[in-house]
Automatic annotation (TrEMBL):
Residues 1-20, 145-165, 335-371 are annotated as: Disordered. It comes from the Eukaryota. GO terms for cellular component: transcription factor TFIIF complex. Residues 45-192 form the TFIIF beta subunit N-terminal domain. This is Transcription initiation factor IIF subunit beta. Residues 257-319 form the TFIIF beta subunit HTH domain. PANTHER family: GENERAL TRANSCRIPTION FACTOR IIF SUBUNIT 2. GO terms for biological process: transcription initiation at RNA polymerase II promoter. Its main location: nucleus. Belongs to the TFIIF beta subunit family. Residues 351-362 have a biased composition (Acidic residues). It is found in: Nucleus. It comes from Zasmidium cellare ATCC 36951.
Length: 371
């Protein structure tokens, strides 16, 4: 059997077997700049998480923006008072003294009392992020500062389809995450009552009051002279409103006071002793009680007629009519008349008869006509 010889195609490149990868070329200990942990010394000291006011936050943000990167700025100092034995650790007195040398903090109160919330680690992690130095955000639509030889004639996606919508995808820039030391103490900063805090609140109050509209009183205008009185067509009637138009006071609606249920039951029984059928309007005008209260008590002794000549009127149920002996009264089959509110307020006219009885003190005068 003839020997078979393997042929290697010339386009395939073979790795030399006698040139292994050198260990020096492997970067096993490459620096990782994406995540920075605090030093052991910083971890032992711990950090404070303090809730500050909006004005202090703005001042500290201005200080941060005005300083170079990685610059340490002393914004203040903590004054911690020794706690007495047996006291609550959260009630320990701590003050924050701001650095008056910083221009951004001169308008703020100089002393803040820290109200302690936690004095031990509570799984609270604080970190910051920033873009890596070797990755910069590209300016969209700017091609004037491109390096020589880089093509710039092809428009970008934003130039072709408009600006990017909020929340849509954009190229991610690698971030550098820096972890802060463990949060050992959590507190809330409140201004101490001193001269600097009172001056600060006074400036805030004056600024808030100056933003609203103000009325300017001119000293050279006669306050007793009505505006527009100097015109030729001025009359006293032009400054007075016409009566009954726009200023008519609405008459208050009289509210009926509810009478006790037992008295209302007696009044309803007296009504049905006069007429066998009563409508809600007639009962309202006769009893002067709210409709809801009348109906609530009326349902206990009467029923609503659903058909016939007296549809919509109430009549006594059989049990109540039997107890009151309504059948012995021999009432006519008719409904009670509806009394209007005017008649109920002013009377029915029977009061005039009482006045006629008092005319006996007058003498009768005989009138004779002259010839």
């Amino acid at each position: 059997m003839a020997d078979v010889k393997a042929e290697i195609k010339p386009e395939i490149k073979l790795d030399p077997a006698d040139s292994p990868t050198k260990l020096a070329e492997i970067d096993e200990f490459e620096d990782d700049t994406d995540l920075i942990f605090p030093t052991p010394e910083m971890q032992g000291q711990g950090a404070w998480l303090v809730k500050v006011s909006r004005d202090m936050w703005k001042a500290w943000n201005d200080i941060y923006q005005s300083q170079p990167d990685d610059a340490e700025v002393e914004v203040g100092r903590l004054r911690v008072y020794h706690a007495k034995p047996g006291d609550d650790p959260n009630s320990q007195k701590v003050e924050l003294l701001l650095n008056d040398g910083l221009e951004q903090q001169k308008a703020l109160p100089s002393v803040y009392n820290l109200e302690m919330k936690e004095n031990s680690y509570q799984n609270t992690v604080v970190f910051s992020e920033k873009d890596l130095d070797r990755h910069r955000a590209k300016q969209i639509g700017h091609t004037r500062n491109l390096t020589a030889g880089k093509p710039s004639g092809i428009p970008g996606k934003s130039d072709r389809y408009g600006p990017r919508k909020p929340g849509s995808y954009r190229t991610a820039i690698p971030k550098q995450t820096i972890l802060a030391p463990p949060i050992i103490n959590e507190a809330v900063a409140k201004p101490a009552e001193d001269k600097t805090s009172l001056d600060f609140f006074k400036r805030q109050y004056d600024a808030a009051m100056s933003q609203g509209r103000k009325a300017t009183i001119l000293p050279y205008v006669d306050k007793g002279f009505h505006p527009g009185a100097a015109s030729a067509g001025f009359t006293f009637g032009s400054i007075t409103s016409r009566p009954g138009k726009g200023f008519k006071k609405k008459e208050p609606k009289e509210k009926n006071v509810r009478m006790p249920e037992d008295k209302l039951l007696d009044a309803l029984q007296q009504c049905f002793r006069q007429y066998p059928y009563w409508s809600m309007s007639a009962l309202r005008g006769h009893l002067r009680q709210p409709d809801v209260w009348i109906k609530e008590v009326l349902d206990k002794i009467a029923v609503l007629v659903r058909s016939g000549d007296f549809t919509g009127n109430y009549k006594l149920n059989d049990n109540t009519a039997r107890l009151l002996n309504i059948s012995d009264l021999e009432l006519k089959e008719e409904a009670a008349p509806i009394k209007s509110e005017v008649e109920s307020d002013q009377g029915t006219g029977d009061e005039m008869g009482d006045d006629d009885e008092d005319l006996g003190d007058f003498e009768d005068v005989k009138m004779e006509g002259g010839a």
